[in-house]
Amino acid sequence: MFKTLSTLINGANARAEDRVRDAFAIELIDQKIREAENNLKAGKATLASLIQRQRSEDQQRQALANRIAALTDRASAALRADNETLATEAATALAQMENEMALRAQTLERLEQKVLRLRNSIESGHRRIIDLKQGAIQARAVRREQDIQTRMGGIGSDSIADADALITRVIGRDDPFEHAEILSDINNDLNHDSLGDRMADAGFGPATRATASTVLNRLKASNS
Length: 224
Description:
Elements: H1 2-23, H2 25-80, H3 84-171, H4 176-190, H5 195-201, H6 212-223
């Protein structure tokens, strides 16, 4: 039972986390881009330090090479002058400097490799951030489109339906003038007021109102 409850709770938490991530997806994307830019900035600072150290190491190596060349010339001159003591002392110093030169060469080689790897990593990170920014622009456009579609869907299902119902209600209302006329006819029928007119129209008794036939007969008589 406890395992089942734990599974249900974990599932609910995961769904809640997904909903939060969906709701704040744009904000999370921007935050991740800022983090990547900060990491890239730190990488650039480290690269600058490595390059500075590399240049310094190369300058020291070059200076040491110049010292070795100069001392070698002096040692050769001492040997030509049969000064074994100075030549031996110079040879000892040269051995130490050559060992130092080898160490500096190794250090410089390691620095060059680090600089190369870090430079490649920074260039890759820079391109990746550009891609992320383009993706963020597309994500914002999609989110705006989704919001518009959501609002349009709301209009279609609610507002338009309500407006259509109101239009139908207004158009479908009875004409008050026609209603009053029908009501008057009904009252006349109940009071027998229209009975004389109907009988006169049928030819029983004198006419109670002018009709098209009576008007036409009068016109013919006046023109004869």
